[in-house]
Amino acid sequence: MGMSEDFFKIHVCMFDHGKISEKDLRSVRKERDGMANGKSLLLGLMVGGAISAAATLLTTPSSGKDLRGRVKDQGFEWKDMIANLKQDGLRLKEQLTETSKEGAALIKELTQEMKKSVEEWKQTVEPHQENIHQYLEQIETSLMDLEEKVKSQQA
Question: What pLDDT is stored for residue 1 in this prediction?
């Protein structure tokens, strides 16, 4: 869940900065939640299937021929379920790969935008730095003059 959670946080950050819409953010949230639900569903199916198979085999009073037929049918069901799980796993892998690529591109874009913002801020502040420095020097000079006047009046 860590990697998909990181990508979700990136999308939230981009939403906060107006880079993506609320609809896109909801879509990313839905994909993230879907991945977590998919893992839970897969685990539930496997555990439930194993328990039901064992319970069926152990508690069913039937002939060996019937039991073999049911085991064979259940084997086909398991084979189909495993094939479906494999397909779901491949889709999940593709989705993770795509999300990873999108996340890397978003991080690169966000980094570039942050660098640009810092440069713009530096360009905005730099001309005022000299004025601030001069103003501080004037205040310092005024304070020195004021201290000298106070000393001369006390003497």
Answer: 46
| pLDDT at residue number 143 | 92
Of 138, 120, 102, 104, nearest to 24 by C-alpha is 102
Give 57-90 pLDDT, tens digit per residue. Answer: 667 676 777 777 877 888 888 888 889 888 988 9
Distance CA 110, CA 112 (A): 5
Residue range(s) defining the domain that contains residue 119: 2-129
Distance in angstroms (rounded) separating the CA atoms of residues 132 and 135: 5
* Domains contained in the chain, number: 1
Report the C-alpha gap between 12 and 19 in whole angstroms.
10
Q: By CB neighbour count within 10 A (0-12 exposed, 13-18 middle, 19+ buried), where does 105 fall?
A: exposed
